[in-house]
# Entry
Amino acid sequence: MKGVKMHSPCCSYKLILLSVLLVVLLTSTTSSEGVVPRTTNNVESSEKIYGGERVYATEFPSMAAIMHFRFLFWRFLCGGSIISKKYVLTAAHCFDQRLEDLTVTVGYVAYRYGAQHKITKIMKHENYSRELITNDIAILEVNPPFTFNADKKPAVLPGKYEVTPVGSSGTIVGWGWTESSHEDGLRKAQVQIWNQAECEEAFLNIMPSQICAGGYDVEVSVCYGDSGGPLFVDGILVGITSFMRGCATYVPNVFTRVSYFREWITLMTSV
Ligand SMILES: *[C@@H]1O[C@H](CO)[C@@H](O)[C@H](O)[C@H]1NC(C)=O
# Structure
């Protein structure tokens, strides 16, 4: 990890200027990685924000922001969901690159004001495939543990292999954050659960361990679902945002189907 961290005061003006220039150069060339949901081949990653609406502080108390420290700043990496005092559920692909200095912030809609919790362990699913983007699920252990209150609570998990009916109305939540455009505040958008066959037409291989959901129309944002963030149906965390094809297209987002991994979650966390 090529993070530029300045621990000790040092150096002459020239050196400081040089490092500032370097930091600016480096950050501008590595801008949008890991920030928007992963896109599939042949499709452009859109950085525009469509539709969606602001949410209230206590509306999604399980919402977590995964932040990493790079080039002097804390940056947003992925969304996640609190599932217990010690654990956060998110997408495995958020950790494709080796990252240091990771924290989880929770507790309020704007991640920059949230309480910080160090990530002490990253547990990716052993069958996570980077190429196919399958089994895209990971659990993070945090320290100190969360203290629950009105704006910090665990998400309700689905039962083992519980089916989410096609056509159900779902809600995706996220900061919809990219480094070129972002709003300071959590947003949500309504989506509809697709049937697997239709989703396969859009994305060739869709596994039973994945669930698709998309906007009702082209104007509705699916861009707000940050990678790793939640898809709720009736208040239950049924999906984890895994990948998408740009924004404002009538193509669904693909989510990791949480009910499919319910036993794995228990195995890893006793939750
Ligand atoms: C991973 O895949 C192997 C081979 O299909 C299977 O035996 C194993 O149970 C899987 N692991 C998990 C955690 O599901």
Remarks:
- The longest helix spans residues 13-29.
- The chain is about 10% helix and 30% strand.
